[in-house]
Write a structure and sequence with these properties.
The complex is a heterotrimer of chains A (about 300), B (about 120) and C (about 475). With about 300 residues, chain A is an alpha+beta fold. Chain A contains twelve helices and six strands. Chain A has three domains: about 70 residues, no CATH class; about 90 residues, no CATH class; about 100 residues, Ribosomal Protein S5, domain 2 (2-Layer Sandwich), CATH 3.30.230.10. In chain C, the strands form four sheets. Chain C has a five-stranded parallel beta sheet with strand order 5-8-11-4-12, with helices on both faces. The chains are: A alpha+beta (about 300), B mainly alpha (about 120), C alpha/beta (about 475).
Chain lengths: ~300, ~120, ~475
């Protein structure tokens, strides 16, 4: 930094008049400090962190013609581009990628899952209108660097990659394991549409009570009954567990399918090995669909008002 | 084979209750009581009534103030109002609402029914 | 017996479309299109097609906004409208056989002792033809039951059945009267328990008097008339009693023809010397007016002391309707209690133990869950009887002492007459079938070709659990009727 500053200065001070002999006027310290480019932001900072080394103006003046007024010169050539900070980072990453190209990598699936900033996140964080293509190229390098074997990854790479990680990392969320209490019950909670179900699953002989009623009393439709105990049915555990469930909200379909999820979660607490089978049966993932809101100018969410030509 | 009750002929598939209610000034309350009095169940049809009950019903109806008797009372009441020269009587005679309703629109019923010899 | 309707063309059998009415015989019909059609309307000879003239419909049809729910013009010819009562008859018809079902070779007919034999638990057994006719005469079959899916009507012999048949047999042997109320949840087979009791009675030459729907007696839809010289006034229901007499006659023809009257009945218009067969007595009523005295005479003959009479089964379905204030009105415009209707009173007295059957027999009534008025007294009484019975057995081992439910002191709707009737009845609670019985059912369905699945442990468990612990009606819905839901 110091050397580059000096070089910058040389050109900056070019043109200072040689009238600096005898009692030269006191150096305009502030003016010199303005010459120092701040690292992060584009504007020239007036806050001095550490004063630059005193410049031997006299020596310089002897060698060059020094102008009376110095002009600030940016440190990086990117200063004059559209997205200077991004360009700097891009170049730094590119350099890193080239220098560590020989380090061993892990397959992408084995790398630690990370949520990268998307285009709008990146634009917001550095305050520049980054182009989508540039972002894509940059992220390709980021991904390549991320694949470097974690044991051998240099710290400088880790730091560089941190800039591209999102603040909230969803992959770090760990579900709280469902305990099995002293009565042998596992409590699973499931939701669907606007229904919520809590199911206590214990080992037993296939009895199901929903809100104090039997399955038959609670669900009039055979289809709803089937979907309520689908998790047990799909894994052939229908006669090995009893279920006591509380369901609230929504209609029969929502309640039945909320119950599916709740029972599946509680079942996984009893037998974790069943998770792949249950996932295959579609019992593990929460269905996020909700009723679409009604819009103005429409009869329902999307239905248009009746319209007859002429 | 129509059955005649109180001078009116009814189809045998007609409900007794409805047949009774077809007389003027005989409503659901009265018809239910008449049915109970002669032990006819509410879903009985005219065709199932024994002739004895039919004559009994006719006799019963002839003791009641229904049809023209009831109409006569109504007409007398209106005529009395008219003769006294009251506002109500006048409104009856003018085919207009009697009880202070607005007359800008929706007075079809009054137009149709209100007169000194009131219909219905 | 053939199927009630031709499944291929879905034509109502009563629609009058017989083979002869097809256009085959008409020489003019040769040029017409092929006679196959799916609707009755299209089978009728077409009217002359309009030629020329103005086109049908509005000029701007298809361009107008139709705001109303009801379309204006009636589209096309709708064919013949059904005759009065035809739709109801079609709705209420009972089919007991399906020629398309596979006959089940291992199905055996019920014998006189089969329903009381514990070895037959969880077996499907067919109803013999004569019993079918008898049960049909007394309307024991219902249109909601799936009789029409199988080659011949068959019933599952359950533990409860054997229990009930044994109790009936016991009562007949000791000349007691079994007074039993069959209760249970929806679709658990209460009506079928009554049917099995009737089948058992018919097989053992009892006299069976069955009231298929009690609501027909108490919802004010049949004629009634006060019986003279009764205090408090009782009411007879002549039309219904006449129908009942005819049903009794047809259902018990064999038994009644062998029993002879012991006394002359001077009150009847027809002279009945002693030693006339009871069948003739039952047939004495030709008019509704004569029905009630004849029924009384028949009843007094059946319960005559000293004479050697067969045991009697009095059965009814829909007990709750019997245990409420009826919809009839007295001449003073007061509601009549159901127990003041003479026929209901007879049944209630028999159920309450006030009326003894000298030659033994049974009074069996089933509750209904689908179409029943709320009768707090009956519900309470049945719960009390059940709790008392459990107490007598020592109760369920887990809960220790069984609480006998008591009247709610803040509720006014209790009925003392009902509780008096139900004070000492036995309650048979019907629940879902166990897995063995469920398996027998499913194997029978599969053997009849109605269930296309291999019946193994897994399938049985699945259907058993889905039907809320083996409720047979729900098992039918889940396994047999899935296409209908």
């Amino acid at each position: 930094m110091a050397s580059s500053t000096r070089q910058g200065l040389t050109s900056a001070l070019r043109g200072v008049t040689r009238t600096l002999n005898g009692k030269r006027p006191p150096l305009p310290k502030q003016r010199l400090q303005t010459l120092r480019l701040s690292g992060g932001s584009r504007c020239l900072s007036t806050e001095s962190i550490t004063p630059a080394k005193a410049i031997d103006i006299q020596g310089l003046a002897e060698r060059y013609r020094i102008a009376e007024h110095a002009r600030a010169v940016p440190v990086s050539a990117s200063y004059f581009s559209r997205t200077p900070i991004f360009n700097d980072r891009y170049l730094a990453l590119d350099k890193l990628a080239r220098s560590y190209t020989n380090l061993p990598v892990v397959p992408p699936a084995d790398a630690e899952p990370v949520v990268w900033k998307n285009l709008s996140d990146l634009r917001r964080s550095i305050g520049e209108q980054v182009k989508a293509t540039d972002y894509a190229d940059c992220l390709a390098i980021v991904r390549r660097l991320h694949q470097i074997h974690p044991d051998l990854k240099p710290d400088i790479v880790k730091e560089a990659l941190d800039d591209f990680k999102r603040d909230v990392q969803g992959f770090l969320n760990r579900p709280v394991p469902i305990p099995i209490d002293k009565f042998g019950r596992a409590l699973g909670v499931g939701k669907r549409k606007s229904s919520t179900a809590r199911a206590f699953v214990v080992e037993g002989d296939g009895q199901v009570l929903v809100n104090g009623k039997t399955l038959v009393d609670y669900f009039g439709r055979v289809h709803d009954r089937e979907s309520a105990v689908w998790a047990l049915h799909a894994t052939d555990r229908l006669d090995k567990y009893n279920v006591w469930a509380r369901v609230e909200g929504g209609g029969t379909t929502g309640q039945a399918e909320a119950l599916t999820l709740a029972i599946a979660k509680a079942l996984i607490a009893h037998e974790p090995a069943l998770k792949p089978a249950l996932r295959k049966a579609g019992c593990v993932t929460r269905d996020p669909r909700r009723v679409e809101r009604k819009k103005h100018g429409r009869v329902k969410a999307r239905k248009g008002p009746t319209w007859v030509k002429r | 084979m129509p059955v005649s009750i109180f001078g009116a002929a009814f189809h045998e598939q007609k409900l007794v209750k409805k047949a009774l209610e077809s007389f003027y000034a005989l409503g659901p309350q009265t018809s239910a009581r008449i049915l109970a009095k002669y032990c006819i169940h509410p879903r009985a049809k005219i065709g199932t009534l024994p002739p004895k009950t039919v004559t009994a019903l006719t006799a019963e109806l002839s003791t009641m103030t229904i049809e023209s008797d009831a109409k006569k009372i109504l007409h007398d009441n209106i005529k009395r109002l008219r003769d006294m020269g009251t506002y109500r009587g006048r409104r009856h005679a003018m085919n207009l609402p009697v009880r202070g309703q607005r007359t800008r629109n929706q007075i079809e019923t009054a137009r149709k029914l209100n007169k000194v010899e009131r219909r219905g | 017996m053939s199927a009630p309707s031709c499944l291929r063309c879905l034509v109502r059998p009563s629609a009058g479309v017989t083979v002869s009415s097809l256009p085959r015989s008409s020489p003019l019909a040769v040029a017409r299109a092929a006679p196959f059609s799916t609707t009755t309307a299209n089978l009728r000879p077409k009217k002359e097609v309009q030629t020329g003239g103005a086109p049908k419909g509005h000029v701007r049809s298809g361009k107008m906004l139709q705001l109303g729910k009801f379309k204006k013009g009636k589209a096309g010819d709708r064919g013949r409208t059904p005759a009065p009562g035809e739709r109801k008859a079609y709705r209420k018809r009972i089919t007991l056989s399906n020629d398309n079902a596979i006959p089940v070779p291992w199905l055996t007919d019920l014998g006189p002792a089969d329903l009381a034999n514990p070895a037959n638990t969880a077996r499907i057994m067919a109803l013999p033809t004569e019993v079918q006719d008898q049960l049909r005469a007394s309307e024991a079959f219902k249109p909601t039951q799936c009789w029409g899916m199988f080659r011949k009507p068959a019933v599952l012999v359950r533990k409860e059945t054997i229990d009930m048949a044994n109790r009936m047999q016991n009562a007949a042997d000791k000349r007691h009267t079994l007074r039993l109320v069959v209760s249970g949840d929806k679709l658990t087979g209460k009506s079928l328990m009554v049917l099995q009791a009737m089948a058992h009675a018919h097989l053992n030459n009892w006299v069976v008097i069955h009231i298929p729907e009690v609501q027909e007696l108490t919802t004010a839809c049949t004629e009634y008339a006060p019986i003279p010289n009764t205090d408090p006034v009782q009411y007879m229901q002549p039309v219904y009693v006449l129908k009942l007499l005819q049903a009794i006659r047809r259902a018990n023809e064999g038994v009644l023809s062998k029993i002879l009257t012991v006394s002359a009945h001077p009150e009847l218009s027809q002279s009945m010397p002693p030693n006339t067969p009871l069948l003739a007595l039952a047939g004495a009523a030709k008019e509704p007016d004569a029905a009630w005295p004849v029924f009384q005479a028949l009843w007094s003959e059946l319960t005559a002391q000293g004479a050697n009479r067969p045991p009697i089964l009095l059965s009814a379905d829909g007990l709750a309707h019997m245990m409420k204030v009826s919809d009839y009105r007295s001449p003073a415009f007061d509601l009549i209690h159901s127990h003041d209707l003479a026929l209901v009173r007879l049944f209630a007295d028999a159920l309450g133990g006030g009326l003894r059957l000298p030659s033994g027999g049974a009074v069996i009534a089933a509750t209904t869950r689908s179409n029943a008025p709320r009768t707090p007294s009956m519900e309470l009484a049945l719960a009390q009887r059940e709790a008392e019975a459990n107490k007598g057995l020592g109760g369920p081992s887990s809960s220790g002492a069984v609480e006998v439910p008591q009247r709610d002191p803040f509720f006014r709707g209790y009925d003392d007459r009902v509780e008096a009737v139900l004070r000492s009845v036995q309650v048979l609670r019907v629940r879902g079938v166990d897995k063995l019985e469920a398996r027998a059912l499913m194997e029978y369905w599969a053997a009849s070709g109605m269930l296309r699945a291999t019946v193994d442990e897994k399938a049985v468990t699945e259907k058993w659990a889905l039907s809320g612990g083996g409720v047979p009606g729900e098992m039918e819905r889940a396994a047999l009727l899935t296409a209908r839901i």
